[in-house]
Amino acid sequence: MSSPLADEPVEPAGDDAEPLDGDECAEYLDELGDAWEVVDDHHLEASYEFPDFETALAFTNDVGELAEAEWHHPDISLSWGEVGVEMWSHEVGGLTEADFVMAARMDRLYADASE
Ligand SMILES: C[C@H](O)[C@H](O)[C@H]1CNC2=NC(N)=NC(=O)C2=N1
């Protein structure tokens, strides 16, 4: 079951937005799957596992399409059987709600790919 957070819009933070603090990050993190962790209260990191390279590549492409559609982009690493993701709001210099919504959308993509 993916998080209702995935149904939220991915909204760019305002020009004067401040990054989320540790407590706010912890609250949002509770709504994400086990793949995710908050690092240094600055960015999200996840590792998704796959049976082979082909399925990992397909997920990578799905995440890329999501990022382009929402204009909010992760760093993605692709290996045999694994996709690593790092996510933060570059223009804010830390985490915003948009990052957690994107992470929840990736959890939903992963759940769909694992069916
Ligand atoms: C230049 C471009 O509009 C910016 O880089 C956009 C696009 N993608 C982005 N992705 C992320 N993760 N953070 C941003 O601040 C961001 N801003």
From TrEMBL:
Q: Return the Acidic residues bias intervals.
A: 8-22
EC number(s)? 4.2.1.96
Disordered: where is this region?
Answer: 1-22
Asked whether the keyword Lyase is assigned, the reply is: yes
Single annotated GO MF: 4-alpha-hydroxytetrahydrobiopterin dehydratase activity
InterPro entries on file: PCD_sf, Pterin-4-alpha-carb_dehyd, Pterin_deHydtase
Q: Which reaction does it catalyse?
A: (4aS,6R)-4a-hydroxy-L-erythro-5,6,7,8-tetrahydrobiopterin = (6R)-L-erythro-6,7-dihydrobiopterin + H2O
Keyword Lyase present in the record's keywords: the answer is: yes
Q: Which family does it belong to?
A: Belongs to the pterin-4-alpha-carbinolamine dehydratase family.
Q: What is this protein called?
A: Putative pterin-4-alpha-carbinolamine dehydratase
